[in-house]
Amino acid sequence: MEYTILILVLPLLSFLFLGLAGTRLRPAAAGAVGTAVLAVVTAVSYMTAYAYFFGQGRAADGLYPTLTPWNTTWLPINDTLSIDMGIMLDPISVMMLVVISTVSLMVHIYSFGYMKGERGFQRYYAFLSLFTASMMGLVVATNIFQMYVFWELVGVSSYLLIGFYYTRKEAVAASKKAFIVTRFADLGFLIGILFYGYYAGTFSFNPQTEALAAAGMIIPLALGLMFVGGAGKSAMFPLHIWLPDAMEGPTPVSALIHAATMVVAGVYLVARMFPLFIGYAPDVLHATAIVGAFTSFYAAVVACVQSDIKRVLAFSTISQIGFMIVALGVCTSADPHSGGLGYMASMFHLFTHAMFKALLFLGAGCIIHAVHSNEMSAMGGLRRYMPVTHATFLVACLAIAGIWPLSGFFSKDEILTACFAYSPVMGWVMTAIAGLTAFYMFRLYYGIFWGRENRTLHAEHTPHEAPATMTLPLVVLAAVTLGAGFIPFGHFVSSNGTAYDIHINPTVAAISLCAATAGIALATWMYARERQAAAESLARRFATLHTAAYHRFYIDEIYQFITHRVIFRCISTPVAWFDRNVVDGFMNMLARGANGASYLIRGMQSGIIQHYCIWFLGGALVLTIILLFIR
Amino acid sequence: MIHMEYYLIVSTIMMFAGIYGFVTRRNLLAMLISVELILNSVDINFVVFNRFLFPEHLEGFFFTLFAIGISAAETAVAIAIIINIYRNIRNIKVKSLHEMKW
Q1: What phi and psi, each to the nearest 5 degrees, are found at residue A357?
Q2: Nearest residue in A to B26, CA atom
Q3: pLDDT digits over A129-153, tens only?
């Protein structure tokens, strides 16, 4: 399967071409180049997936083999330790290839309509190609260090795309915030990698067990630090603050990077290191479940009161990633039949979530395109103007709420089953969050398509359905969302590689359906009508809570306080003073000393040859005397 | 019989007269003359050492002949330089030459 190298090389070439020659092309031509390359990449990815799962099938031991069709030593460190670059195919990386290429292709097509006439259209497509190349490199990484390299590359492309509208102050601030917060978390990741590389003696994912056993407590520590990096990228509390702000970027970018692919890199990292987590650091794994559950709950609560539709979706993404992390965290063994179900559930949810969340974001893009605002107050009653967007958005909302037979139901059901198997408390908490998810998603849905219509605004500028380039991806993703639940996912991906049949646990399914229905019913009662008396009186009754949740419980303000008041004032200012006065002062003193000494001796360089001659003769005399008398 | 030492005394006096002249004169031509004095004192030394210490050899004499020839050529070059300096700055005082200083 050597052709898989194309998956990495083609988008990279497309990035170079569009980045260097893009401004000479017409915008449409640049977009066509980017999209055509992506179409080829998607075809190759599908071909790879087909060949991997069906062409060669399972090996004699009943597992899908881990293939390395391409590998090279990039940076040898010593005889045994080296950093490799290559392509590794195993069930989860092949699954990710399919997810990334599908969503990326849809976003490329969609952007034709959405970004039409924007300044820097070519640059936009160049960055999209860069992102796709780096994300592909991340998922097919043969070792943790290659993953880290591409991990940073996706961070850079995310930074570039969030700050795409670089003339807007908010976008610039948001891009910096995203980069700094994730970079800060990546420090933990890097330290974890170095610990791991030092003690395990390799960067690969399957080290010698003796080395790991000898390392003792270092391996859990290393894995915990790696999770910090994953938490930064996947916006886990309290490192989530960059993701809502990242919505300043173009909406298709939010769909691709900040909903479907890059933000699940943390989940993918934990899944990738899963054998090590389960074997050497189960406590760390369970701790991640707590982090995930808390994040999920926090984000769901905040999502209930946001008024900017993209921010609702951003918090919903954070919440859903929390679900995936929880599903991984509640695993107690590698056997899918006893305690390892969460792994499969998490990957399944990653797959389905990528599709329906991308669909939600692209739908939101169509809506923003139609009303030229992100605020829900500018919307309402849009179902009459935008039938396709409305239908597909409804499909995605039902899917994320977990209604049978949409894909979200199946994956969420598996997650809840895994949670209940771990502990009833975790199960009920996650069920409650699932209900909350249904509530806030339908609040969003009713707020956009039903509810109180902003007639004055719509009279001035009648909302219209988006062009075909934008609705086509919606329809495709909606079709995937409708059908994806019936994929026998456990046959492709499971915690120890053996085939696993997904069977719906009727009790859990009933509970989760009840929670989802209750959430939807509540949202319908509160928000579907023109007058929203119940919602307003609730907001008034719990005004403090409402305001706090609207301001995301002041986490950003706490960060602001800590960085500006504590770090800048109490640490940075004295350090800056020390640097300016002591470190620089010492250097200045040296320079002044050298300067003064030069002034003292510069008289010797008179330029008058006779002076030199005297010095020369004097020297010759002294040498002669030394040679003659001092033997 | 004139002893070797007498020749050497003369050449030493010439040598130091030349050095003194080279260091103290401010005129390029005077400096050039001083350099010639130094060269000639060395030539005398060559000849004297050859004549008294190795009478059966001729290397010293020949070396002196070469040295005289080369110093003549070198003087020609030096005078050419001095003339050019004079053309440029209308002066051959060594003090006014700071073109190559620093």
Answers
A1: -75, -40
A2: A610
A3: 999 999 999 999 998 999 999 999 9
pLDDT of residue B100: 59
Minimum Cα–Cα distance from A605: chain B residue:
B102
**Distance of alpha carbon A68 from alpha carbon A51, whole angstroms:** 14
Span A253-290, pLDDT tens digits: 989 988 888 999 999 999 998 888 888 888 888 899 99
The per-residue pLDDT for A575 is: 92
Per-residue burial over B37-70, b = 16 or more CB atoms within 10 Å of its CB, e = otherwise: bbbbbbbbbbbbebeeeeeeeeebeeebeeeeee
Chain A residues in contact with B101 by the CB 8 A cut-off are: 605-607
Please choose, from the candidates B80, B1, B84, B11, the residue with its C-alpha nearest in 3D space to the C-alpha of residue B48: B11
Dmax over CA atoms of chain A, in Å, equals 116
For chain B, positions 25-54, list CB contacts with chain A under 8 A.
31
Q: Which CATH class is domain B4-89?
A: mainly alpha
Of B94, B100, B102, the CB nearest to A610: B94
d(CA B68, CA A334): 101
Give the end-to-end CA distance of chain B in Å, rounded to a whole number: 54
Confidence of residue A361 (pLDDT cuts 50, 70, 90): very high
Interface test with A, best of B12, B16, B19, B23 (most A CBs within 10 A): B23
| Whole-angstrom distance, CA of residue A120 vs CA of residue A124 | 6
**Residue A94 tokens, joined:** 């092949």
Please tell me the distance from the alpha carbon of residue A412 to that of residue A324, in angstroms, as a whole number: 9
| A560: CB partners within 8 A, 6+ apart | none
Q: What is the DSSP string of A543-575?
A: HHHHHHHHTGGGHHHHHHIIIIIIIIIIIIHHH
Q: Report ipTM for this prediction.
A: 0.77
With vertex at residue A566, the alpha carbon angle to CA A561 and CA A572, rounded to the nearest 5 degrees, is: 125
**Cβ contacts of residue A558 below 8 Å, gap of 6+?**
none
A-contacting residues in B 63-102 (Cβ below 8 Å): 94-95, 97-98, 100-102
- Rounded Cα distance between A594 and A590, Å, is 6
Q: What is the DSSP string of A464-480?
A: -PPPHHHHHHHHHHHHH
Domain residue spans of chain B:
4-89
Note the pLDDT of residue A238: 84
